[in-house]
Amino acid sequence: MALLGCGVVGSQVIRLMHEQAGDLAARIGAPLELAGVAVRRLGRKRDVEIAPELFTTDAEALVTRDDIDIVVEVIGGIEPARSLIVAALAGGKSVVTANKALLAEDGASLYEAARRGNGDLYFEASVAGAIPLLRPLRESLAGDHVKRVLGIVNGTTNYILDKMDTTGGSFTDALEEAQTLGYAEADPTADIEGFDAAAKAAILAGLAYHSRVTAAEVHREGITEITATDVASAKDMGYVIKLLAICARSDDGRSFGVRVHPAMIPRSHPLAGVREAYNAVFVEAESAGQLMFYGKGAGGAPTASAVLGDLVAVARNRLAGTRGPDESTYADLAVHPMGETVTRCHVALDVADKPGVLARVAELFAKHDVSIQTVRQEGHGDDAQLVIVTHRATDAALSATMEGLRELDIVRAVASLMRVEGDD
Amino acid sequence: MALLGCGVVGSQVIRLMHEQAGDLAARIGAPLELAGVAVRRLGRKRDVEIAPELFTTDAEALVTRDDIDIVVEVIGGIEPARSLIVAALAGGKSVVTANKALLAEDGASLYEAARRGNGDLYFEASVAGAIPLLRPLRESLAGDHVKRVLGIVNGTTNYILDKMDTTGGSFTDALEEAQTLGYAEADPTADIEGFDAAAKAAILAGLAYHSRVTAAEVHREGITEITATDVASAKDMGYVIKLLAICARSDDGRSFGVRVHPAMIPRSHPLAGVREAYNAVFVEAESAGQLMFYGKGAGGAPTASAVLGDLVAVARNRLAGTRGPDESTYADLAVHPMGETVTRCHVALDVADKPGVLARVAELFAKHDVSIQTVRQEGHGDDAQLVIVTHRATDAALSATMEGLRELDIVRAVASLMRVEGDD
Fold first, then answer.
1. What is the distance between the alpha carbons of residues A239 and B329, in angstroms, rounded to a whole number?
2. Are strands B278-285 and A385-390 parallel, antiparallel or unpaired?
3. Percent of chain B with pLDDT over 70
4. Among candidates B246, B252, B50, which has minimal Cα distance to B148?
5. pLDDT value at residue A380
6. Closest to B311 (Cβ–Cβ): which among A143, A273, A289?
7. Chain B residues touching residue A249 (CB < 8 angstroms)
8. By CA distance, what is A9's nearest residue in B?
9. To which protein family does this belong (chains A, B) (predicted)?
10. What single-letter DSSP state applies at residue B321?
11. b/e per residue, B296-305, with b = 16+ CB within 10 A?
C-alpha cells in the first residue's frame, strides 16, 4: 500500500502499522506492506521512523505503481487529492480516505472511478474521526429507514460552546482558549463557520437517505454570533446550545433537509452531555429507534484507528476478490430548501412595557401560522422582555415572523433567536 | 430465504420485509423472497399477514431446501436452533441469527459449519438489539486494540436498577413493575441472575480479543441482592449502580477477564445516564480512545432492524459470491480467573464505636496489600459505620480482605459491598 501525506494522521497510521504488524496480518490474512509515502517535501523531520527510500514527492507516479494495490489518502483538500484518488481508482486500486471536503464536493466522481476500476472506496475517518458511524449507517441500518440524524460532528465548536456554557464567558475568549490548547486552528473559519460540519452533514445525509448530496446543498450557519447571553438564557430554560448537523426526512418521505446551525437542545437529551471536543451522532430510525454513537471526532491516533479499520476491510476484500458496498443512491430523494424545513424557535424580544404588547406580538405569529408553545414576560420598563418558544413550523414561516417582529414599533430588538431541536 | 420462528422478532422481520421490499431489493441488488416460515404449531394467529402455505412445522426440511440460500433463525435457545443452523450452514446456506445463548455456548461449531459450507454467519442482533455494535467491533476497530468494554447489555436489569435509583424502592417492587410493564418475564431468572448478560459478554469478549470465549467462562453475579440501602449509599457518594458486562485485557496483554456483576459507576460516566430499558456499550480502544454505542437493546422492531441489516449484508455477499469476515481467534488469549481481575471496592462496615477500630481495619487491608483510597466514619454507638473505597487490587486480595473483615470482632457486619468501575 501507499500513503499520501505524512502529517498528524499519516504518521500515526505508519506508527500503528509498525506496532501492530502481526495483528493486522492475522486479521487480514496477509501482511500489509508500506511501499511508499508521498510528501510535499523530502528531508523533513517526521514523528515516526520510516526508511528514507520510501519517501517520494511524486505522488502521481506512486498511485499508479503496479506493485501497489491500496492507496491511503490523508492529504486533505480538493486538489491534488481528487486527481490522485481518481488516478489510483482508475488503475484498479482500492482507496481509503479521510477527506470529507472532497467527498462532500465530488464524491460522485470518486465512486464512479471506484466502480470502473472495480476497487473499493472507504472513508470511515471522514466523519466523526474514530467513531464507527458510516459503516453502521451503510451496513447495520441497511434494513431500516433513517428518519433523522442529529450530530455534534465538529470538536472545535463543541469545545467552544461547552466552555461558554461552563464558564459563562464570551465566544472570543472560548475561541482563544481553544486555539491555545490546539483544539482550534490559527484560521478557525472552517470550523466556526460550519464548513467542516456541513461537509460531514452532506456525507451523512447521502448515506442515510441513499441519495447524492453535496456540501453546497447544506444550509449552513456558524457559531460566531452566539453571545454569553444566549448561552445563559438557554441554561435558564434547561437547554444547552450545540452546533448540530441535522439531516431530516420530510413527513411524506419524498425529500429531506440537511443543515448545520447552532440549536438549543434540552439538557436531558443524550447529546447535551457531550462535552469538550467529543463528537456524538444521534440517529433515529423507524425500527431501530434512537441510537447514539459517541467518541473522539479528531486527532491523529483516533483518526488513524478509523483509517486502519478501513484498511483491514479493503485488504480483506482484495484477498477475497470482492468489493465492499457500492454507492447507494437509488432513492434519489431531493434536498428541500431550508424554508421547507420544519423546526421550532426560541426568541427573546425587547419590548415596550405597555398594555397590548403581547396581543400584537401574538397576532403577528398567528398571521404567519406559527403557533406559540410558551411565552414568558420578564422585567419591566426598559428591561421588559418577551421570551417565546414556538411549536413546529416551517423555517420560512418562522423567518417571516421574525422579519415582521423586527418591523413592529413595540419591539425594540430581537435580543436572541435560536432554533430548538431534540425535544419532540 | 427461510425464517425459523415467528414470534415477536420473526413477525417484525416479515412485516418489515413486506413494507420495505422495494428498498431492500434496491440495497441488495435483487429482491428478497420469503420462501418458508418454520413454526411449532400451524394455525396460530400471527401479528403479521403471511400466505398460509408458507408455514411449515418441518424446520429440518425447510433449512435444507435447494431453493433457499439464506436462513434467519429467531427461535432462540440451544436446541433445535443449533442443529437447524448447522444443517443450514452445512448445506451451503448463509445464516442470520439473534441467538446469543447458542453463540455463547457453542459459537465454534457454528463458525466451523459456516467455513465448511462457505456461507456467512451474522449475528448483530444477538447483543444489544438494534445497536450496531458487533460490526463496529469486528470491522471498524479491526485496526485497533480494544482495552476494555463496559456494557449495559440487559434492558430488564437496567430498568429495575434505574427504578430503584429514581424511586428509592426495593428490588422486589422494581421487579414487579418491570414484569407488569413487560420489561421482565414471568420467570426473570435469565435476566436478574445475569445469564443473559453473561452470554452477551462472552460474544463481545470473543470479538474484542480475537479469541474464543464461552458463557461458562464468564464470572457472573446477578442483581437480586441489591438493596435500597446500597442504591441510596451509592447515590450519596455520586455513584449509580448498574449491572455491567465487563471485558478487560490484563496489563501485560496476555489474557483478559470477562465478568458480569453489579458495580458502582460515577454519575458523570456516560453509562450512568443510560436510563430505563436502554442499552449502551462503552469501548476503550488504544488508538480510538473512548467510544460509546447507545440504543434499544430489545424489542421486536429494534431486533428486527438488526436482523434485516445482516440479511442485506449476507444477501449482497451471496450475489457477489463472497463471504463476510470469518471468526477471528488468532490471538487465542486466555480468560483469566476472577481472582486475577483488577478492580476496586466500596465497602460499608458496621463497627463497634471505640478507639482503635480504624487502625485495626486499616491493618487488615494492608495485610492483604489492598490500599485504601478514602475512608469515612459515620454515626456513633450502635450506628457507627466505616465507609471505605479501595484503590485497584486483585479481586482475590479484595475477597480475602472481606473475609478477614467478617472475622474481626470489632466488625459487626459488612453492610454493603460493591465493586467500583469507570472512574480510572
1. 47
2. unpaired
3. 100
4. B246
5. 82
6. A143
7. none
8. B287
9. Belongs to the homoserine dehydrogenase family.
10. T
11. bbbbbbbbbb
A279 vs A420: CA distance, rounded Å:
19
Topology at the third CATH level for domain A134-296: Dihydrodipicolinate Reductase; domain 2 (3.30.360)
| Superfamily, domain B338-420 | ACT domain (3.30.70.260)
Task: Give strand ranges (E) for A272-382.
Answer: 278-285, 289-296, 334-335, 342-351, 372-378
Classify residue B337 by its DSSP letter. Answer: P
pLDDT of residue A90: 97
Which residues on B lie below 8 Å from A119 (Cβ)?
none
Question: Tens digit of pLDDT for each residue in A129-184?
Answer: 999 999 999 999 999 999 999 999 999 999 999 999 999 999 999 999 999 999 99
Q: Any idea which residues of A carry the catalytic annotation?
A: 200
Inform me whether the pLDDT recorded for B68 exceeds 90. Answer: yes
pLDDT digit string (tens) for B274-283? 999 999 999 9
Residue B47 has pLDDT above 80, yes or no: no
| B271 grid coordinates | 453509562
Distance CA B204, CA B128 (A): 10
Q: Give me the torsion for CA of A125, A129, A133, A138, rounded to 10°.
A: -10
How large is the ipTM?
Answer: 0.93
Angle at B422 between CA B416 and CA B424, to 5 degrees: 105
- What CATH class does B2-129+300-320 carry? alpha beta
Beta carbons within 8 Å of B53's beta carbon, 6+ residues apart: none
Q: Which residues pair with B321 in a beta bridge?
A: none
